[in-house]
Amino acid sequence: MSAIILDGSMVHYEALGRGRPIIFLHGWVGSWRYWINAMQVASTSFRAYAIDLFGFGDTVRDSNNYSIEKQALLLDRFLNEMGIGKVALVGHDLGALVAFEYLKKHYESVDRMMAINVPLQYDLLALRMRTAPATELAEWLTGRQADAMTALSDASKTDPVAVSTSMGSLQADSIFPHVRNFGVPCLFVYGANDPAFTAVPSPESNGLPMHMHQINFEGSGHFPMLDNVSQFNRLLIDFLALDSGLSPSELQMKEEWKRRVR
User: Fold this and answer.
1) Which residue from 88, 142, 158, 217 puts its CA 20 to 30 A from 80's CA?
2) Closest CA to 230 of 220, 240, 222
3) How many structural domains compose the chain?
4) What is the mean pLDDT of the segment spanning 168-191?
5) At what angle do helices 68-82 and 160-172 cross, to 10 degrees?
């Protein structure tokens, strides 16, 4: 286990590989652990990091640092302490919100971003997501599939206050309008069968600008990286392989990929 002390607080992380840096940020259910497969794939060309946010996994519990803004400050301090410059970010639900919050203040430091099953509006979250404990959500969102439950084994370590506080931050402030015009390439990925949402957002409803693009995984739920491992990892590598500055909409031009995601 690797850890770093940031402002007196212990933050757990794991790292694999060498090359340009990529940061994986987990969501409300689980920890860094469900990124292991994606990290292994990315580590062939990248230095892959996965962080446990405050109140999750093996990072310290500190209710003063549970807002989305404070979690983004954790990311900023981690990058500074590790001497990481321009970075690719991959975030899942809460992790994507944290990445967007970081983008608001440090867009020049982000090369590209993948936002997976991110709720851009609080009212899109199913009531159960807002009220149930993380262990119950892990069972519900995965259908108790053995491999997925193993990947989410740290759900029991989640501080419920970390979930409620960050969801309160989402309810109080809409992050997306502040970041959509920075020009940072962003790929939205949604599981078409995600029970966490009352409705999966559509590209049309979001009105995505040219540097942003959305891909939906048919037959996938809240954890595309666990439900469709090979497809997700191929999409991740294709996205990371795009030349800097190119829109992720270029991915839709690959007929091979279009066949894979249907």
Assistant:
1) 158
2) 220
3) 1
4) 84
5) 110
